Known about the structure:
Helix content is 62%, strand content 18%. With 359 residues, it is of the alpha+beta class. The protein has two domains: 4-135 and 270-358, no CATH class; 155-231, no CATH class.
Amino acid sequence: MIKTIDKYIFNQLIGPFFFGFFMFVTVIAIDPLMFALQNIVNDNIPAGIVIKWFLFRLPQDMIFTFPMSMLLASLLVFGRMSKDSETIALRAGGINFLRLLLPVMFFAVMITVVSFVFDELVVPDANKRAQEIRRNDIMRVVEPEASENVIMRISDGGFAYARKVFEAKNSMEKVLIEYYQDGKISRRLSASEALWNGQEWGLTGIVEQLYEDGKVSTSKSYQKMDLKGVKETPADFARQSKRPNEMSYRELKDRIDTYDRTKFMDTTELQVELAMKTSLPFACIFFALIGASFGMTSYRSGAFIGFGVSIVIIFVYYVLMSTSTAMGKSGLLPVMLSAWLQNIVFAVAGIFIASRVNA
């Protein structure tokens, strides 16, 4: 049963959370905003195009503000309650600090879910649109020189993978094509290069492998081979190239699984990016715990002190996150540990501080 104190604390969190959200979004948006203004003034880019790019660029930054806002909200609310002696009265009535944390944790879980859904449904498409506008309308580059790590289902029923696609040159490098029957691989073609002549693809440096029961039964090498039945053009392949921040969790996981299955490329960096898609939203929970615990201790001097403490905590968190993810991508840390290390550290610190406050 929800008690009055739960409703009270929950409602108290809403205002400071949205205040922090819009404040942090504004601060983070300064750098892309300056880039936008520079393009309008110096490069004579139409304001409408730049504003459109700026708006599509914002969702990626907003993901980082959910945990920040949760930290500031919990710190300010419990700091004010502590300053006004509300927490003293509640504890005198037999309500300990851990019990007061329940509505905070519920609020934090809600924000975690919202953050994850936002990152799944809004951010990937917004990032893709922002990149297209920046490349085509602002930087005035029709197409990138090369699209990397492209994968797609082709018209003859196979799966094609290309390390690089050069649309302007009508060519691809390090191409792998696989065919399956009843869920098992039946044929694999690997080629050093593929050239599009306007009608069909020509492969060079080919190794053809035929499979039976998942094992190689025949292996042949060819200097050249025409790939009949594949109608996809270089432009079709180039459009399949997406960065990790332009893909949802499911899309990125499917790509990693495909790369691992075909041994197309090392997926360590992609695995770290995938783990970060859950790690960052969950930071809301640990930030809420840290903020509430700090608010109950000695930070009773108002919003400015609360904001300053938030900045320090946020700085430490994101420095730790940047360091651990870099180590994970380079193979110095296991993938999950590199993505979750900062959350583990903050969880331990939050539990320690909360236990001291509750004592």
